[in-house]
Write a structure and sequence with these properties.
The protein is α+β, with helices and mostly antiparallel strands. Helices cover 19% and strands 29% of the residues. Helix 2 packs across helix 3.
């Protein structure tokens, strides 16, 4: 039976964390190392069923002391402290089609107030403000630069959130939410029902429930990219 590359990556990480639990720790430890925020444990738990997002491959490989090739099975992982092995092309096993990045346009800057509300969106959607290179299956993906520290440590000042309008909405992950009364906010999705949506502050706190009639749109936040990855047009 063919194993999907994301499932294979999860199993590879899981085996390594179990093997080195005395030195490193488990999945909660990995979430802290990746700076996934206060809900990081829930985020990595979701990877068990959804697979590990490719945008985290580099960070995970660095934490484990591997290369990305070792993480996805194109090379044998090394023991801590070992030098990178030299491998022949015919020694590598196929681990799935390589993922390619795309230019995700940054469409504006969201100044975040308390509870994750937008109080400013400087550049109208559809008008680029540079871009970030990022892997996404969504051809309509866009980026929003964050101003302010109210979402720290989950989202830091200057970082760019990569948003997928057509992405899957998964409980435990962050979303951009727009209400018909004009309010826009960054929240963690808790429960999505046919008639309502329950969200919470990214850094924990009070839950809010909105009826579907109150919601204009809700988009999945696929990743948070460091400010250094931003490029001008």
């Amino acid at each position: 039976m063919q194993i999907h590359v994301m499932d294979f990556v999860y199993e590879r990480i899981d085996a390594e964390l179990k093997r080195t639990r005395g030195q490193r720790g488990g999945w909660a430890w990995l979430a802290r190392q990746l700076d996934l925020g206060v809900r990081g444990s829930q985020v990595v738990q979701n990877w068990k069923t959804r697979g590990v997002p490719p945008e985290h491959y580099i960070g995970i490989a660095e934490v484990l002391g591997w290369t990305v090739e070792e993480l996805v099975g194109k090379a044998q992982p090394r023991e801590p402290g070992m030098k990178h092995p030299v491998t022949r092309g015919d020694d590598l096993s196929y681990a799935g089609r390589p993922k390619t990045s795309m230019r995700v346009p940054v469409v504006g800057t969201a100044k975040l107030g308390s509870d994750g509300y937008y109080v400013e969106l400087e550049t109208p959607t559809g008008y680029g403000d540079g871009y970030v290179e990022h892997y996404s299956r969504d051809g309509n993906a866009y980026g929003v630069r964050v101003k302010g520290d109210s979402m720290h440590p989950a989202i830091k000042h200057g970082q760019v959130v990569v948003v997928e309008p057509n992405g899957e909405l998964v409980p435990g992950e962050n979303v951009l939410l727009s209400l018909r009364d004009g309010r826009k906010m960054v929240k963690e999705l808790i429960i999505g029902r046919a008639d309502s949506v329950t969200v919470a502050s990214v850094n924990g706190g009070e839950r809010l429930t909105f009826s579907r009639e109150e919601i204009e749109w809700i988009h999945s936040i696929a990743a948070v990219v460091s400010a250094s990855k931003w490029r001008p047009e």
